[in-house]
Please model this.
Amino acid sequence: MDKPPAALWITGLSVRLFGLKPWSIDDRLAHLGGLLAGAVMALTPVATLMFRFNNPDALLVLLMTAAAYAVLRSIQDARFRWLLLAGVFLGFGFRTKQLQVLLVVPGLAAAYLLAAPVSPGKRLLQLTGAGTALAVSAGWWLAAVELIPAEDRPYIGGSQINSILELTLGYNGLGRLNGDETGRPGIAGLAGLGGVLLWQRRAAAPARAVRRGWQGAAAHDGGCRCAAALAAPLAYSLTTAATAHSGAIVSAGPAATGARGNFAGLGNFGRQGTLAGPGPLANPGTANSTRAPGGFGGRGGGMGGLLGTSTPSDALVTALRTDAASYTWAAAVVGSNNAAGYQLAAELPVMAVGGFNGTDPAPTLEVFQQLVADGKIHYFIGVSMMQGETGSDAAARISEWVAANFQAEAVGGATVYDLS
Model:
């Protein structure tokens, strides 16, 4: 896990209460203005894109919005407790996605300094109190993780040295601003390719909707123009919400001609046999047919890789469930999205080698070898993965060791190694 746990607490509690089902319940009501504002935000394409799956961004935006509301109430009512509550919301936002929540703090602080109905000295004193509330509500979890010995807690995903401070200041901190994220799989390149894909879709339904809207509203007032302008985001958002998705990078808008799963059509990111090292069962005659097992690319296991996942075959699920009680992990596979697909299908523990994108040094080759020797892992599944630009090569070394020491077999379209 390369994020703090707040968003996972919410979804975990939901599963505890309602079970693992593809629906949720929200029966809260609000004033008409709030409902309209919420509808506008919900119909914004990027919100529809990010909030439709269990990424921390939805909770992060909710907490930042709640903090802004609390600051406004503090200014309107001249009540310090609202400002303290804003600090608590921001602290909880830190436990959702760490330093990214601080992007709104300068604006909120400036608004209070300029508009609070108290003396300037009291404004500074109260902001200090709110900052303390933020630090306490965010810092207790950080301190707890840092103080617990590494051998008594899970590995800190996204960190190269198993440190929550490194994760906070690097991968989930300054790295989000300067792009220096260890193990990042070329996100800037994906963004550029996404722009190309959007340009290819310029004749699709959302683009046509906005053109027609502006043409139809040309003779009317500004309100009609605004309504017409919102028609395009509405059409795009509805298409996004109606399209099934899988994996870590979800799909937006209508599918482009020749593309598979929207972003997947651009180089088959996270799909079979295109980016990096293939397994022994890779398609002959391809550029990727000589390197070793699974891990980073190749035909491997046919699961989604970094940017997606899919449902494994019935034959593979049956194999994973066979004698599963005798093992701690029914299987091991590179990447957390790959592991998630197998784990949800088989309802059994599956080890995510290398963390989210396969570049965490967890487990190391030595640790993995010991787990295999102890009979803890039943299968290793070769998969296609897009390798990160930096980070540990432990997952690649594990993949190579498995391929060199165990026999590969095809099970339901996947490359599987029996480690028993």
User: Anything to note?
Assistant: Residues 23-30, 185-191, 257-305 have pLDDT under 50 and may be disordered. Strands lie at 329-334, 350-353, 377-382, 408-411, 414-418. The chain has three domains: 6-178, 187-265, 270-420.
